[in-house]
């Protein structure tokens, strides 16, 4: 979404500065990734091929979708120099993999062999099972005389009758042309995470010409490949490969297991069931384009194959649920494939009645039922929901042309108010404490979730059925950039939003970075971490354009068990209460 109108243990208690060089395994690959320029399509493909200049495994390794006893492992093989991502060329490969209980691989606990070829762009995905819960592991791949970088990962803290620590980073909106991936470097430096939750817009579809998106100063340095908007399967594969050359992103994948879900830009902006705002007739059949995007996503991302946890659905099932012992569940929803087309917020000077039409849906009805049943039936203290677009009601700030009750953005849950109300009612009926984790809007939020969002009533009763935390973007333009680069305008806009929507307890529209959510039986806390250049989070300079930027703590908010409300600000998170086996 483009915002409308607007390891080694590292002490993270202070601002950290991790050199880009320290996160590389193969310095040449990192230097090459930083040197990408504006290229022809042929040169672009040659450049991404050079992503393998660090060897057969030049696009790194990754793990994902952790359970108590299994992990998904990923890599991409370049079997011969001509087997460029997206080219459809190159011989097949037999790839050996190992999982060990130590970084030196003296205690290998699982091993196996997989095959890959051009039909899946030479990517490899395997499931290592039979593992021990809440345990750290190391993994690697071998083929054609080459050995991959070593990845570190861990199984889920999911042991019946035992309560372990739970701490996740959550991120979204990582536009390559928008800046350096300093936020990923900050995540890679941490030794206290169980997983990274990526909530969508892992990559962007735009090209380098009129549709370029990001700081002008990075043109020629952080350019998209292919240089035009991605439309075909070859385009999507090549764009995924480009992102996987980034050294900071590689490091974050190498250090932690990821749980990922797409939003719109993995296909194209503001997608819905039968089209998208950014799909034009000359770009061909939308369904062919979407199928290509989904195929490349499944090939290049550390996500299990669809339907891994079968449930009634429409189309391809990407939604799934993760268990964390007796502490919490995490339901990851997918809200693009089957959503009804977006509608205007007003019609004829009045609030558009279609916004509340029960025939219009964000997730398909089967998925919404899966989600609401999971919340109603849960007996655990917390139920986390990994979600793409803002869930809380967000009314537009009163001004000329804004009618009473007009919502800010109909691409969010506000555009599908019957589904929104159904989920709020399920939250109110359940005994678990719902916590929605959201991306998309390129800013940082902590929201109460009133059942009936009315400013006067909310201020009188402070009634809420759950909470929502929204992470900042990794690099994509936020309030400040959307308001002409004015920090003062961004502050004024966020203040006005909070005045109009008092259930927004915290809102910051300047910083870029990531969030960390920590769960105990007593409370859920979210810490916001912003990238900084010379100590500036973006008030006077743009830290996205500084390759030497660092990450630093900004603010923390929490929800105490039983309150279903946001409280804070509070102090920064301290050490975990326990650590995985082998850590």
Automatic annotation (TrEMBL):
<feature type="domain" description="PhoD-like phosphatase metallophosphatase">
    <location>
        <begin position="168"/>
        <end position="528"/>
    </location>
</feature>
<dbReference type="InterPro" id="IPR038607">
    <property type="entry name" value="PhoD-like_sf"/>
</dbReference>
<feature type="compositionally biased region" description="Polar residues">
    <location>
        <begin position="336"/>
        <end position="349"/>
    </location>
</feature>
<dbReference type="InterPro" id="IPR006311">
    <property type="entry name" value="TAT_signal"/>
</dbReference>
<dbReference type="Pfam" id="PF09423">
    <property type="entry name" value="PhoD"/>
</dbReference>
<protein>
    <submittedName>
        <fullName>Alkaline phosphatase D</fullName>
    </submittedName>
</protein>
<dbReference type="InterPro" id="IPR029052">
    <property type="entry name" value="Metallo-depent_PP-like"/>
</dbReference>
<feature type="region of interest" description="Disordered">
    <location>
        <begin position="336"/>
        <end position="358"/>
    </location>
</feature>
<dbReference type="InterPro" id="IPR052900">
    <property type="entry name" value="Phospholipid_Metab_Enz"/>
</dbReference>
<feature type="domain" description="Phospholipase D N-terminal">
    <location>
        <begin position="60"/>
        <end position="155"/>
    </location>
</feature>
<dbReference type="InterPro" id="IPR018946">
    <property type="entry name" value="PhoD-like_MPP"/>
</dbReference>
<dbReference type="Pfam" id="PF16655">
    <property type="entry name" value="PhoD_N"/>
</dbReference>
<dbReference type="InterPro" id="IPR032093">
    <property type="entry name" value="PhoD_N"/>
</dbReference>
<dbReference type="InterPro" id="IPR019546">
    <property type="entry name" value="TAT_signal_bac_arc"/>
</dbReference>
<feature type="region of interest" description="Disordered">
    <location>
        <begin position="562"/>
        <end position="583"/>
    </location>
</feature>
């Amino acid at each position: 979404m483009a915002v409308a109108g607007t390891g080694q243990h590292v002490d993270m208690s202070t601002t950290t500065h991790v050199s880009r060089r320290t996160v590389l395994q193969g310095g040449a690959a990192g230097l090459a990734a930083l040197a990408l320029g504006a290229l022809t399509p042929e040169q672009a493909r040659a450049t991404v091929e050079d992503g393998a200049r660090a060897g057969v495994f030049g696009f790194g390794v990754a793990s994902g979708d952790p359970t108590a006893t299994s992990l998904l492992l990923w890599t991409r093989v370049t079997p011969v120099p001509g087997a460029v991502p997206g080219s459809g060329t190159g011989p097949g490969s037999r790839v050996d993999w190992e999982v060990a209980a130590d970084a030196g691989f003296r205690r290998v606990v699982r091993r196996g062999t997989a095959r890959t070829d051009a039909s899946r762009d030479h990517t490899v995905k395997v499931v290592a099972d039979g593992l021990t819960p809440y345990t750290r592991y190391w993994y690697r791949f071998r083929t054609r005389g080459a050995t991959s970088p070593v990845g570190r990962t861990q199984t889920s803290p999911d042991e019946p009758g035992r309560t372990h620590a739970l701490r996740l980073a959550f991120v979204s909106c990582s536009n390559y042309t928008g800046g350096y991936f300093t936020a990923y470097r900050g995540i890679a430096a941490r030794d206290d995470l169980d997983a990274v939750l990526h909530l969508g817009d892992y990559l962007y579809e735009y090209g380098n010409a009129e549709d370029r998106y990001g700081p002008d100063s990075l043109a020629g340095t952080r350019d998209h490949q292919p240089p035009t908007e991605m439309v075909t399967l070859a385009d999507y594969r090549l764009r995924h490969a480009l992102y996987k050359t980034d050294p900071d992103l590689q490091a974050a994948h190498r250090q932690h297991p990821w749980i990922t879900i797409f939003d719109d830009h993995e296909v194209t902006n503001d997608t819905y069931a039968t089209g998208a705002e950014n799909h034009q007739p000359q770009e061909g059949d939308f369904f062919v384009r979407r199928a290509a995007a989904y195929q490349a996503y499944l090939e290049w991302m550390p996500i299990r194959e669809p339907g891994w946890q079968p449930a009634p659905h429409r189309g391809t099932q990407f939604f799934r649920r993760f268990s964390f012992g007796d502490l919490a569940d995490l339901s990851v929803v997918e809200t693009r494939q089957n959503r009804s087309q977006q509608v205007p917020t007003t019609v004829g000077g009045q609030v558009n009645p279609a916004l509340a039409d029960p025939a219009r849906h964000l997730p398909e009805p089967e998925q919404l039922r899966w989600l609401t049943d999971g919340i109603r039936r849960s007996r655990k203290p917390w139920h986390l929901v990994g979600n793409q677009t803002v869930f809380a009601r967000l009314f537009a700030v009163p001004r000329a042309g804004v009618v009473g009750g007009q919502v800010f953005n109909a691409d969010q849950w506000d555009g599908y108010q019957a589904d929104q109300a159904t989920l709020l009612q399920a939250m109110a009926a359940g005994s678990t404490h719902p916590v929605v984790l959201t991306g998309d809007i390129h800013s940082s939020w902590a929201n109460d979730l009133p059942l009936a969002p009315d400013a006067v009533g909310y201020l009188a009763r402070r009634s809420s059925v759950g909470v929502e935390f929204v992470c900042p973007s990794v690099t994509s333009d936020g309030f400040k950039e959307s308001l002409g680069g004015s920090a003062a305008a961004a502050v004024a806009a966020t203040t006005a939003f909070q005045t109009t929507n008092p259930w927004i307890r915290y809102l910051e529209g300047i910083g870029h970075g990531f969030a960390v959510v920590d769960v105990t039986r007593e409370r859920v806390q979210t810490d916001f971490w912003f990238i900084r250049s010379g100590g500036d989070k973006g008030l006077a300079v743009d830290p996205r354009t500084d390759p030497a930027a660092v990450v630093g703590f900004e603010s923390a908010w929490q929800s105490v068990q039983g309150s279903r409300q946001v409280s804070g600000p509070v102090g920064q998170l301290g050490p975990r209460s326990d650590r995985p086996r082998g850590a």
